[in-house]
Each structure stands twice: as C-alpha cells, then as structure tokens.
Task: structure prediction
Amino acid sequence: MGKEEKEVAAYRSWPFQEAAQIVKRRHPNGDRPVLFETGFGPSGLPHIGTFAEVARTTWVRRAFEHQTGIPTRLLAFSDDMDGLRKVPLNLPQSEMLETQLGKPLHSIPDPFGEQDSFSGYMNHKLREFLDTYRFDYEFQSSSEAYRRGDFDEGLQILLDKVEEVRQLIVPTLGEDKRMAWSPFFPTCPQCGSVYKTRVTGYHPERQSLDYVCDGELGSARGCGADGELSVLGGRVKVGWKVDWALRWFTYEVDYEMYGKDLVDSARLSGRIVRLMGKQPPVGLTYELFLDEEGKKISKSVGKGLTVDAWVQYAPIESLLYYIYQNPKRARRLFWDVVPKCVDDYLDALRRYPDIADEKRPEQDVWHIGDPSGSVPEYGAQVNFSTVNNLIAALGSDSADLLVDYLERYDEQASSYPQVLQSLVEKGHNYYRDFVLPNKKTSDPTVEERALLGKVAERLGVANGVTEDELQGIPFDIAREAEVEPKELFRMFYQVVLGQERGPRFGSFVKLVGKERVLEMLREKL
Ligand SMILES: [Zn+2]
Result:
C-alpha cells in the first residue's frame, strides 16, 4: 500500500472514502487534472437530484484535493443530443412541443421563447442554478462536443467494433428489439428526427453508415428519407449507455456518481469503455430521494420539494447538510424534514469549534462549508424550532420583535445577528405555509380547564424562578391531580398552541415570557 493511499483512508467520512478509490484507480502516468463528471438531462428543469449530484461530487472532489494536492476539474455535462420522447407536463406550448417529438433537444424551439432552443433554456437554468450556489464547474453540452469533433475518435472505434458492442447490449434487450438495435442514432437530414431513423448498414472504412427514416414515435411516422451518413461531427449520436461510455472514453473521466436506477446502465457502459480500450471511472451509487409518499422525485412531473422552495423556508446550508448525510440510504425529502434538518445543522455548527483541527475533515460541516474551508460560527442556543414556537405563541409578523424576544431568551443570540435574522425570516414563511394550516385548536373540557387554571395560578405567583423550577410546576400539578405529566403537556400545547407537541414547558415560559403564557391560558379559562 502506497503512502498516498494510507493517508486517504485516514478519514472515515464518505467523501474521503470515495477519494481513496480515485487514488487507487489513477493512471500512473496521469499528470493531467483529475476529472469529475456530473450528468444532466435537459428534457426538464434541473431539480433537487441534479443539485444533490453536483454537491456530492463537489465534496468528493474537495476531499480528494485536500488529501492529495492534485488539481481537479468538474465537467457538468448536458445531454442535449437526446431526443424529446414525451411532452413534459409542467411546460408551456405543449401543442408546439407535440410536433417536435423525436427531435434532439437542441433543435427544438424554447417553449418559453427566451433561449435559442429547448435545451438552451434548460441548460441556462442549470447554469444559473449552479452559479447561484457557487459551484465550481465547467459546462459542456453534448451537441457542441459532437459538432466540435470531441467524440470522433471514439465514434470511429465504436463503428469498427460495432458487432462487439452489439453483443454486449443485445442480450439485455427484449427479443423484439434485438435485430434492429444499433449503438448509433442518425439524425434524419430531412426531417430532423433522431428516434424515427434506423441503421441499415455500416461502412467503418468510410466512417459512415446507411440509414432509413421510417420508424414510428407515438402517432408520427418517419419521413421516408434514406442514404449514407458520416458518423462524425454530430450527424449521428450514440444511444444512452454507449454515449456514457463514449464520454468516459473521450474525456478520460476519473469519477462519476449515479443514482441507483442507473446501476445496470453504468455496468454496461463500463464494459463498452473497456472494449474501447480504457477504464470506466470510479463511481458511487447513490439512493434516490423520495417524496412524502415514498415515490421517486421526478422532474417531468415537477412535484416535490425544489431547491428554490427550500431556501424560502430554511437556509441553503441546511439542505446541503441533509444531502450530505449517507448518500447510500434512500430518504424522504419533504416539508416535515425541514425543521429538524435546520436544528441538526445548527447543532453541528455549535460543536465544531471544540473539534481538534486534525479531526475536522470528519465533520459534515467541514465538507459543506465554503471552499476556503471556513465553517460559519454559531454558539447560540436558539434554533429553528425555538423560532417556530415563538411565532406560534406570539403570532407576530414583526421580525424585530421576534429578534428582541430571542435575544432576551438567549444572551449569546445577539452575537449572530445574521443567523438570527435568517431564522426569523424563514421561520415565518415556514410557519405561515406549513404550520398554521395544520393548526387545530380545541377548547378544553371542564377537567382540563381546572388543570390549566392551576397552572396559571402557580405560574402567576412564581417570581424570578429558574427554567427548571418553572418546569416543575406542571409536574407538581399533574402529581397532585393524579394525571400523567405527558397528558398535561399534550393538553397544554393543544390548547395554547394548537399543536400536538411543544418545547419544554420551562423553556417555553422563559422564551415567550410569563405574562404572555398567562394571557394565552386565561383566554381558554
Ligand atoms: Zn426523416
């Protein structure tokens, strides 16, 4: 085992484990930067999965650089040579798009009328999206790379070895598709379709193939054109698995991760790239995010939680924190996870300063911090649920007032005005859109009213007591009345906040103030 390898394995956090795999794989003669790749399908808008893939790849990249000092690049590749197979549900001009089915995405008009093509619009959105979050990447569209001739060498090899490629792929297909299958998809020079053409002959000596445009896609038939076409320069693209292999071959990609749904594709692409004479990249298989009902989050439906939406309700770092956690575990990503996620993130920030320098690269927040390695400081006790409880109790729209309360509650809080402002602003949005609509206030029964009356009475005469002593009040009352303390707490929060659960009673009183709690209780008595 080399020195390098041993060093890489020194950190247990998963980006370092991934980095160790790259160190093992690297070509001994490689003095070029190590290349990371992420893929984007511009048939729809970039979604949270795209964001997560770029973020996770960035973490591996940074771990690798930190450990080895070897420079790296990240290629964000967009497959705009792909054809449009169906009209996405969440886009305008569906009638126009219907007429464009089967054409490559880069040759379809932009339904929003802003960019020069359908994929131009999606690519623009992707770049805007990645730039907003300050990812470091180089963008590359497939059509540009094909036209520039990047793939010509690989295309020639694929044409030379077309039978061997067929032998790899054909057994994985259904009987009916085996005969006609070709790694090549010619774009019909007459009608522009890429899914209605088929290949009828190969001429490796002339870098060309024969095609006919007579296929069907939905209700539309090919235009009937036929002839010979060069495979070079973007006139012909290769199918998805072969395309992946072609990219790996051409750019010598060292690292690419992919979703669990693409495991088989990755395996086949790996075999193809070996057949072409090079090695597939190292890659992590990540589990997919699921929506509330446990279904895969899909871009064509446009459902589920988006990055843009998340940042309205919680800081972006909390989303990164969520995405960072074990990528090999499938997790649900929906609104209920937001508060806990913010609180876990703040907790991690609080613990960070006590961690020895050499242990820091083990920490989640080390990875998600900015590229200079700096991690924001946060030493206050206020968290997202504190803010939500306060808003629930005060019902206030005034950010200043809420900040006042928080600073009175926690002396440390005033040292982090930006975090506080952000928590209050986003907490407000979260409360308004997700907590308030689910509130169910109920009137107390006679017995409950009597218990709450006692709480109010004791609280009223408690002066200058500590949080712990305040916490003791409902316990004493519950014991005297012979009810379960947890029943009393549940009832208290149900009646005063309209929610099933709440913070610790003592902390709650300290947070919103004794007078306000008494006022809320008296309204119900
Ligand atoms: Zn045609």
About this structure: The pocket of zinc ion is lined by residues 188, 190-191, 193, 196, 213, 222-223, 225 (CB under 6 Å). DSSP finds 23 helices and 15 strands in the chain.
